[in-house]
Amino acid sequence: MPIKPCSHVPATIHAPLSAGCQECLALGDSWVHLRLCVHCGHVGCCDDSKNRHATRHNATTGHAVIRSLEPGENWLWCYADDRQVG
Fold first, then answer.
1. Is the pTM of this model over 0.90?
2. What share of the chain is helix, strand, coil (3-state, %, to 5)?
3. Closest CA to 46 of 66, 63, 27, 28
4. Is 76 buried (19+), middle (13-18) or exposed (0-12) by CB count in 10 A?
5. CB 30 within 8 A of CB 9
6. Secondary structure in 3-state letters for 24-59
7. Closest CA relative to residue 24, chosen from 2, 60, 57
8. What are the extents of the domains in the chain?
9. Angle at 11 between CA 6 and CA 14, to 5 degrees
10. Largest CB tally within 10 Å, which of 5, 37, 70, 82?
11. Residue 24, number of CB atoms within 10 A of its CB
12. Rounded-to-integer distance, Cα 74 and Cα 60, Å
């Protein structure tokens, strides 16, 4: 069954603003996986990382959709709909 898109996915997906989690880089910390906010280009660490900066970014900005930045992964997740949307 194909994954249905949602209304939160913007028409234009922004490019990453950094090569790693922006907050972890500033803290000198590490991450497990990277996620891209498609709304603004913010790069944050995943929920398996101790700081969970991608989810924190969603909570503070309301930007609903992230994309995996991991090699070989091409999926989108919508926090608002709590599901994979692409």
1. yes
2. 15, 20, 65
3. 66
4. buried
5. no
6. HHHHCCCCCCEEEECCCCCEEECCCCCCCHHHHHHH
7. 57
8. 22-84
9. 110
10. 37
11. 20
12. 25
One-letter identity of residue 3: I
Q: Which CATH architecture has domain 22-84?
A: 2-Layer Sandwich (3.30)
Q: How many angstroms separate the CA atoms of 82 and 37, rounded? A: 15
Separation CA 51–CA 16 (nearest Å):
19
- Token look-up 């996986």 returns 33
Tens of pLDDT along the chain (86 residues) come to 567 779 999 999 999 999 999 999 999 999 999 999 999 999 999 999 999 999 999 999 999 999 999 999 999 999 999 999 98
Dihedral angle, C-alpha 66, 69, 73, 77, nearest 10 °: -10
For residue 44 the two structure tokens come to 């944050």
